[in-house]
Amino acid sequence: MANWIDIAYGIGVGLSAPYWLLRPTARRKVLGALERRMARDLPQRDLSKSAVWIHAVSVGEINATRSLATQLKRARPDLHIILSATTDTGFARATELYSRASDVTVVRYPLDFSSAVERALDQLRPAVVVLMELEVWPNFVHACARRGIPVVLANGRLTLPSLRRYSLVKPVARAMFRKLAVVCAQDEVYAERFKQLRVAPERTVVTGTMKFDSAAIVDVVEGAPELARAVGLMLPPGVTATQAPVWVCGSTGPGEESIILAEYRKLLQRVPRLRLVIVPRHPPRFDEVARLIEGAGFKVVRRSNPVLQPVDAPISPVVLGDSIGDLRKFYSMADVVFVGRTLVDLGPRQHGSDMIEPAALGRAVIVGPYTGNFADAVRKFVAYEAMLVVVDGETLGESVRVLLGTPDQRLLMGHRAREVVEANRGATARHANLILNELADLEGTKNVVHEGHEGHEEEKKREN
User: Sorting pLDDT into bands at 50, 70 and 90, what band is 108?
Assistant: First the structure.
């Protein structure tokens, strides 16, 4: 099967070549992937230790691996963790998180050509593979099955558009999903969809989402005060937080920044000292968003090279978060948060960014209508009146205005949001136990992780 799948991949690359060769951004992306993700230069690891390979696509999924890796290592201190990512930002975040861990190897996930997959498995030799959310590829899964390596799908979610796409290649999809050892679905709806792809019911488990566990509930985020000083978000002398609130718009996508800037201009008529922070989702858009801010008539302070304006400037400059790893710090400074990729329809794969993280910080959070990637989490927040869902730019601006004008309501929303996060913890321990069970079947051992917040509490201590 691998041979004809490779042929199909090759044909796809060839047919799309006129597009990506003529577009510099696409060309760099494709050629970079072909250079870095063919598993030709993987690091060495200690092969005397059993290893669990955890694969995540990008930053959000990488963050969700922290507690899982901690709990696996607590149960099995001898275990080696292999962490892989697909995107450049995900790889950078994984390197940042695990750079000091001698028992963690960070690699780029191989492209699904059989030669790259075989080289990666030969070099890394995992005992168990864990794929986050829906990063399932046929050559990789078939190669693991041939080698007797159990593959666990963690934090599994299957949207209707994804289900329809798999239905177009039903024989391939069913053959691939049948080989998964366990599917850990985020909710019952996703579980039923996986079963439609022939995942056996006895191997489909509803575990919830680990992202509730990876969002640390803290009052102070390490490094936030220094960041505030660097970009000019510290309160000027004699000005209170009520007079100069902060609106943070995180993980924004194309089309959203212009809406935000238009609503910000209107809000300044009511709250003249309101400060705005915009953190685009994708680093390649940083310069584009800087131009949008300036084109809207605002000065911009870039996190990467802050040139601060006088504290008595008539209108505060807009802060552009053009850095990796600072979004949570910015969220902790906010009075109101808008989570991006939710206001403009960017396609099903782009519907929603992580709103659990600012909720765990006790912030009043607003999202748009396109939240399919976090549908179950949003339902829980909304049901508890712990999050606002708006339909367009006008209702976004009005919601920000109301929340800024009603501090008690804003604080209550943040308090409720934290309660929702706390009530939905435990998925990481359930995932860890299922992974350890696969290891036990291979090695004849038994380890159990007790449901609780131990891994999270360690992270919380590090944050403080």
Answer: very high
Q: What are the helix (H) ranges across 77-203?
A: 88-98, 114-124, 138-147, 160-168, 170-178, 188-196
Q: How many CB atoms lie within 10 A of CB 394?
A: 13
3-state helix, strand, coil in the chain (%, to 5): 50, 15, 35
CB distance 368 to 391 below 8 Å: yes
The answer to whether the CB of 210 falls within 8 A of the CB of 68 is yes
Question: What are the φ and ψ backbone dihedral angles of 254, each rounded to 5 degrees?
Answer: -55, 135
Residue 158 dihedral angles phi and psi, to the nearest 5°: -135, 100
For residue 458, name the pLDDT band (cuts at 50, 70, 90).
very low
Select from 323, 338, 326 the least CA-distant residue to 286.
323
Rg of the chain (C-alpha set): 23
> Could you tell me the two tokens for 421?
């996060």
Amino acid at 197: L
**DSSP 8-state symbol, 198:** T
Q: In a 10 Å sphere around its CB, with 0-12 CB exposed, 13-18 middle and 19+ buried, how is residue 2 labelled?
A: middle
Per-residue pLDDT at 451 exceeds 50: yes
Average confidence (pLDDT) over 119-125? 97
For 32, residues 6+ apart whose C-beta sits below 8 A from its C-beta are 88
Under 8 Å CB-to-CB from 117, ≥6 apart: which residues? 39, 110, 139, 140, 143
SS3 251: strand
Cα–Cα distance between 266 and 415 in angstroms, integer?
28
Indicate the pTM of the whole model: 0.82
d(CA 4, CA 328): 44
Q: How far apart are CA 16 and CA 7, in angstroms?
A: 14
Compute the distance between CA of residue 390 and CA of residue 4 in angstroms, rounded to an integer.
Answer: 47
Cα angle: 407, vertex 425, 455; to 5 degrees: 110
Which comes out higher in pLDDT, residue 464 or 96? 96
Give me 101's structure tokens: 């861990």
Please give the Cα distance from 449 to 86 (Å, whole number). 28
Distance (Å, whole) CA 156 – CA 137 = 14
CA distance 335 to 331: 9
Rounded Cα distance between 70 and 75, Å, is: 9
